Amino acid sequence: MKTYLNRHVLKIMAAVVLMTTSPVYCMNFHTFYIPEWKRTVIDGEGEIVSGDAASFSEISKQGSRDQFGNVTLVLNSPGGSVDAAMEMVKVMDAVGVTTIVPPGGYCASACASILFVSGSKRAVFGTGLLGFHTCYNRTQSGDEKNDLCNDAIASNAVAHGVCYGVVDVWTKSYSAGQVAWLGPETACQMGLCSVELVPESKSCASFVDGLVDGFLKKP
Prior knowledge:
Elements: H1 7-18, E1 28-34, E2 39-45, H2 52-59, E3 71-76, H3 82-95, E4 97-101, E5 106-108, H4 110-115, E6 121-124, E7 129-132, E8 136-139, E9 142-145, H5 147-159, H6 164-173, E10 180-182, H7 184-189, H8 211-216
Parallel strand pairs: 2-3, 3-4, 4-6, 5-7
Antiparallel strand pairs: 1-2, 7-10, 8-9
């Protein structure tokens, strides 16, 4: 897919994803400088937990503004607390954020359905992946789907320019133990990417023509 990023920059971002070899049990934020952009971006890696909103608020002051006036947040996270992610969105909205999943990175669960979609500009590049599944409550009898939580997540997506159904279909069609992994092509065809970053992106309404249903029917 054609993007405004060249291969050199993609390699830099992929290298950043591979830097952490030990498990990360909270979202670790750090900055890195991309010479070709003459810009400092922020890398967010690890599980989303309480307190991450304050950490991001502080480090966002070190990020450079892109051509959209946003700070760039590169995501590589398995997800985490829905409440903590929603708190972080409040900070992201105040700061103005472009969200990116780089080659070799992945953004799953609350990272994908809350943080990624809350970027005012969004893109997935190379071998990057978005992972969606249902919101659930963990009980003694097992994991139970939480439709109220799923609706809140989909409503947040709408507030950030993503069609309700694009997020809702994944959260309600995949259980807690299942993940719908979307690469750049599928994600961008569904309107999860911004056309300013990925020219081939479709509008959020394009999935209505059967793209999602077709994907769900695949073995």
